[in-house]
């Protein structure tokens, strides 16, 4: 099932260039989405500051 899904994703992003370019495009899109999800998850954590305010 996963290889079929990967083929559909590659086909969606594929242009009339080389197949390695389209695979890299899919990889970069997936990495960008995962980076955004990680960033928003990290920003929702609560942080405690122990600094002294004058």
Quickly list its features:
69% helix, mainly alpha, 54 residues
Please characterize this protein's 3D structure:
Helix content is about 70%, strand content about 0%. The chain has helices at about 1-15, 20-45. Helix 1 packs across helix 2. The longest helix is centred in the middle third of the chain and has 25 residues, at about 20-45. The termini are far apart. The model has no long low-confidence stretch (mean pLDDT about 80).
Approximate shape: rod-shaped
- Identify low-pLDDT runs: none
Number of helical regions: 2
Broad structural category? mainly alpha
Distance between the termini: 61 Å
Largest sheet composition: none
How do the helices and strands follow one another from N- to C-terminus?
HH
Rounded radius of gyration (Å): 19 Å
Mean pLDDT: 79
| Number of DSSP strand runs | 0
Helix fraction bin: 55-70%
The proportion of strand residues reads under 5%
How would you summarize what this structure contains?
By secondary structure, the protein is mostly helical. Helices cover 69% and strands 0% of the residues.
């Amino acid at each position: 099932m996963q290889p079929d899904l990967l083929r559909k994703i590659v086909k969606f992003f594929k242009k009339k260039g080389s197949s390695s370019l389209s695979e890299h495009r899919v990889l970069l899109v997936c990495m960008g989405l995962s980076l955004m999800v990680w960033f928003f998850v990290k920003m929702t954590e609560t942080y405690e500051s122990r600094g002294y305010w004058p």
